[in-house]
Design brief:
Blueprint (H helix, E strand, L loop, with lengths): L3 E6 L7 H13 L4 E4 L18 H11 L4 E4 L2 E2 L5 H15 L3 E6 L4 H7 L6 H20 L6 E4 L4 E5 L13 E4 L5 H9 L2 E5 L3 H18 L10 E10 L3 H8 L14 E3 L1 H13 L4 E5 L6 H10 L1 H4 L6
Parallel strand pairs: 1-2, 1-12, 2-3, 3-5, 4-5, 5-8, 8-9, 9-10, 10-11, 10-12
Antiparallel strand pairs: 6-7
Length: 320
Amino acid sequence: MTLRICVFTEPHRGADYDDQLRFVRLVEAGGFEGFFRADHYQAMGADPGLPGPTDAWLTLAALARETSRIRLGTLVTSATFRLPGPLAVMVAQVDRMSGGRVELGLGAGWYEREHTSYGIPFPPVRERFDRLEEQLAVITGLWRTPVGESFTYRGTYYRLLDAPALPKPVQMPAPPVIVGGRGPRRTPELAARYADEFNMPFKSVAETARAYRRVAEACERTGRADADRPPLVLSAGVVAAIGRTDAEARRRAAPLHAKSALPPEDPVIGSPAQLVDRLGEFSAIGTNRIHLRLIDFSDLDHLELIAGEVLPQLEQMPRV
């Protein structure tokens, strides 16, 4: 099985809808599996990211009508941003608009500054994870409720009474759910119980392998390994700044050195061959899918370089 490659982007750094549309059309033409975007309302460094943020699900709805093949989704939507019932409706509608190509990445939320800026409540970390768990239960419960039946849920933070659980997504029983992160305990447990994919974002191969082991142990504890459910897709985020020359790669890597609220990452800076080697290392630890993070929406040549000189080599890569 060929390692599946998606492109992950951060429009809050500075990209309007037209920038994203131009980029996503090239992602589809270039042979990538999918286009995923961050769900943030504010840039994370000194650069304000003009012209300002775009809403993730509004954007994905529009892109769903402008594309025909690629997967579309978030890495990740913050559980603090939206109520779970309306979010389930929203994602199901976008899934229908795309013909069944949507995926929902959902996380607890972490960037306090954007919450403060836009008046979004930002509870303590434990409550955020409690809310995330309830949101996962509500959203997957609504999608999986048979047509003609209602869904009721009584949690600490969210309560639904006789919800009609409509509309239904095209993908049945539900669009894929992605849960990811570096947390050692609750994140693996939530992935094992609710997710279709576990994602380790932008860390080394060794750190990613340890995260995969924690998730496997959580699947054993929760009984997922014995249940009639497919195994989790294991994915990794990889930051890439690739060039035909060292100077070109360094130029593309320059934004990675700017001060940011993001935690430390393990980027690949260099040639297409170096990126192929790193992806081979991820494949060797059991990674099924890569979310390749590219920084600059205006740098279409970067995308074309990877499509032309990296993707073809992955088709011949042996799987472990």
